[in-house]
Amino acid sequence: MSLSKSQLKLITSLQQKKYRIKHNLFVAEGTKVVKEILDSNFELHQLFCVNDFEYKNSYNPILISNKELKKISTLKTPNNVLAIFKIPKSEELIEKGLILVLDEINDPGNLGTIIRLSDWFGVDQLVCSLNTVDSFNAKVVQSSMGSLTRVSIVYTELEVYLKNTKLPKFATLMNAKSVYETKLPNDAVIVMGNEANGISGQLLKLLDNSISIPRFGKLQKTESLNVANATAILLSEFRR
Asked: Cα dist. 181→121, 178, 225 in Å?
């Protein structure tokens, strides 16, 4: 069996958000990522693999050549398998635990890493602005390394969400009280801002508290931390 023109067209189209929405499908690539998603409750639509993928006898895959895999892959070095999964229904907003709010995160790698961090630190939910990069973008799926299946991700109007939540809300800023000197609750909303501009002024007005990660370098010239790195430090402090 080989790759058909209609299959090639579908897979290629799913690189764009509008077609992911239209078909309610997304693409995952590589042995580790695909295995993680296959082992979750996500529903498989179609599996394409070369002969040496170890799951090939379990999911009735379409066997393709390495040359065909290169045609449909977005990776520089395709890795044995590509799968199409159905996008699950969006979950309800929750009002407990540690919740991470993302205001216009644009970089897919950053979002994928933040999803992995959320999985690691047991964050109950990621609440994203409507203009944050799509969590089913191929690069986000790749960099989340399967954590996408274990973290609740909701896209919504952040202004409405922040007005309505009763949880304590923390803005992450460059110049604020040090996170190391702040008493941190177990249940809270942590707001992370855009890579270039930080948290929008409109949202800042709705936040009760502000915290920062202090710089310890002697020259104090480092402009800022990468948003995913900052998220890792803050989540570690909240959990500590």
From this structure: 21, 5, 19
Which DSSP symbol is given to 209?
A: E
Q: Cα 224 to chain center, whole Å?
A: 21
| Mode of pairing for the β-strands spanning 25-29 and 81-86 | antiparallel
The predicted pLDDT at position 3 comes to 86
Kindly list the distances between the CA atom of residue 51 and the CA atoms of 34, 48, 222, 227, in Å, as whole numbers in the listed order: 15, 10, 49, 40
**Distance (Å, rounded) from C-alpha 190 to C-alpha 84?**
33
Q: What is the pLDDT of residues 4-27, one digit of tens each?
A: 899 999 999 999 999 999 999 999
H/E run at residue 86: strand 81-86
Contacts of 71 (CB under 8 A, 6+ apart): 3, 8
